[in-house]
Amino acid sequence: MDANKKCVICGRAAVFYSSYLKQELCKKHFERMLIKRVKSNINLYKINNKSFKLENQNKCGKEFLKFIFKGMESSGGKKLSSYTLEDFAICVMKFFLFHDAADKRINNRSFSPLFNVSENEIISFFNLKNIKLQSVDRNRKDKVVLDFLKEIEERRPGGMISVVKVGMKLGII
To answer: Given CA atoms 27, 112, 164, 46 in this order, what sign does their dihedral have?
Structure first.
């Protein structure tokens, strides 16, 4: 990150640029923004359990949920899936491109509070804490679709979130 970049909230040195928000953020405000987004997703869907069972669909997502909900994981409680923005965007695009049946749901038998959180944000979050985390390995078809989505995202920041929102509105995911 450029040393001259300043956080839009406090003016400290920025460590992350959110292309979707078009904002430079310092470590403190980046972490707060990310955690707040996940917790507001939980509140939006009126999930008020005090204990959660974390599912392991996406290792990157699971590690982030474990961090946010540490001490709240139990064998019972609400199931939180660990699918991320990329997982849902791939699912929606495969539905449109290949007529693949949707195999992921945002609010089904388990809720995914990471539907609008990217793996890049999660990996950056952990890098700032000096914890190494790898992006998820995907099959060939998913990689091709993700590359296509990344091109869309590059040209139009927020493109993946828009794809997911369309999928939600149409009941695909």
So the answer is: negative
Asked if 106 contacts 116 with a C-beta cutoff of 8 angstroms, the reply is no
0.70 cut: is pTM over it?
yes
| Residue 34 burial by Cβ neighbours in a 10 Å radius (0-12, 13-18, 19+) | buried
* Tens digits of residue pLDDT in 31-66: 999 999 999 998 887 777 677 888 889 999 999 999
As a whole number of Å, the CA-based R_g of the chain is: 16
Q: How far apart are CA 172 and CA 100, in angstroms?
A: 11
Structural class in CATH, domain 31-169:
alpha beta
What letter does residue 73 receive in the DSSP assignment? Answer: B
